[in-house]
Specification:
about 130 residues; mainly beta; seven-stranded mixed β-sheet; four-stranded antiparallel β-sheet; globular
């Protein structure tokens, strides 16, 4: 089993910054791909960013490209999301996800491509 724990959410003003973290524990062997998704009230869960340990590759949604940066700590099996120039439309619950199939090393951008999920952390951007 794998457990994912997010932290770092909060409330900030537009233009502010937040740094989210996601730590994986348990049977983490074979977790090549980890990602961030977000879901606003009444909206579909959408892809934000992802990292693959295969080739240290990253991928970002167009809506956050240039503002968000994904990072990792290999020793801690952790993935981070540095968010800057935050906008009200960034308000959502942010979820950490892990692919869960040791044979899958390519990044996917749909929720169905991920097996393990964290509990979510609230990010609120308000004036």
């Amino acid at each position: 089993q794998v457990q994912l724990v997010e932290s770092g959410g909060g409330e900030v003003q537009p233009g502010g910054s937040l740094r989210l973290s996601c730590v994986a524990s348990g049977r983490t062997f074979g977790l090549w791909v980890m990602a961030w998704f977000r879901q606003a009230p009444g909206k579909e869960r959408e892809f934000v960013a992802a990292f693959s340990w295969s080739g240290d590759s990253t991928y970002y949604a167009d809506s956050v490209k240039g503002r968000f940066t994904i990072g990792r700590d290999n020793a801690k099996n952790a993935v981070y999301l540095q968010m800057s120039t935050l906008k009200p439309e960034d308000t959502a619950v942010y979820y950490c996800a892990a692919q869960g199939d040791e044979k899958i090393v390519r990044i996917t951008t749909t929720p169905s491509g991920y097996h393990y999920w964290g509990q979510g952390t609230q990010v609120t951007i308000s004036p």
